[in-house]
Amino acid sequence: MKNFKSILVTLGLLLASSLAFGQTSLTETTLSGAITSSATLVTLGSITGIVANQTVLFVEDGTGGAQKSGEAMFVVSVPATGTTVGVQRGFDQTIPNGHITGAPIIYGPANAFNELEPSGACTPTNQLYTPYINLKTGNQWLCSSVTNSWVPGFFNVDSPLGVTAAVASVAGATNPSGPLFHVTGTNPITAWGSSTTVGMVGGAGSKTDVVGTPFCVIPDAIFTTTATNNIALASTAVVNKLLCYTFDQTNKKYVPSY
């Protein structure tokens, strides 16, 4: 554990000394198979960008903050072929748990993760990584470009929601920017999230995912959704009337509030 702390401190100091800052989105993947609380080999959907002795995996089973089922793992080995990595369980004193097949994983360098809850004002472009994840609580946070303050991220149910960046409706798949956001435009939406999002960074579960983050939108214009892909019921948005989506793990679709 002391070695892990040293890694965090060293990488943090290196980045603090950098003159250029830019926000980088942490990467998503999924568990390709269920694991027990003691397993040290983990098979992932992708290992792109994962580096041994540098990368932390944060596993989210869809239950959110206050630790619940969230767990951080430190990658200790990466295969030459295949996608099964060796891990040290319970990184930074998180609790090892069993995790389900398809559980979302967000990963990045060790210094991308934190041990404190953020608060107050922030500037999105000054944040090295997004989302901000507190490993002590399992909470995710986003620096809102609307309010320039910290608001709860996906699966963070411990604080009141705050709006994140507005999203233009896309004639197809539209990616949520957070648990609460405005939708602009009138293009019909046929899916929430792209096929590459797994419910943490992109903010929506695909039609094959077992976990998808709940979220709400504030329509700025009238748009429609269709009952295709991962949307359970077609609906027509009402300007300024909150429209919320809950992910149904049985049908793997989002169920709208109206």
Report on the structure:
- There is one protein chain.
- By secondary structure, this protein is mostly beta strands.
- The chain has two domains: 133 residues, Thrombin, subunit H; 96 residues, Jelly Rolls (Sandwich), CATH 2.60.120.
- Helix content is 6%, strand content 31%.
- The protein contains one helix and 21 strands.
- A six-stranded antiparallel beta sheet has the order 2-7-4-5-6-3, with no helix packed on it.
- A hairpin with a 6-residue loop joins strand 11 and strand 12.
- The longest helix has 15 residues.
Radius of gyration: 18 Å
Q: Strands of the biggest beta sheet: in what spatial order? A: 2-7-4-5-6-3
| Low-confidence segments | 1-20
- Give the helix level as a range of percent: under 10%
* Largest pleated sheet: 6 strands, antiparallel
CATH topology value of the largest domain: Thrombin, subunit H
From the spread of the alpha carbons, the general shape counts as globular
Order of helices and strands: HEEEEEEEEEEEEEEEEEEEEE
Strand content: 25-35%
Using the coordinates above, name the CATH class of the largest domain. Answer: Mainly Beta
Number of self-contained structural domains: 2
Q: Determine the mean pLDDT.
A: 85
Q: Count of helical segments? A: 1
The chain-level structural class is mainly beta
First-last Cα distance? 49 Å
CATH architecture of the largest domain: Beta Barrel
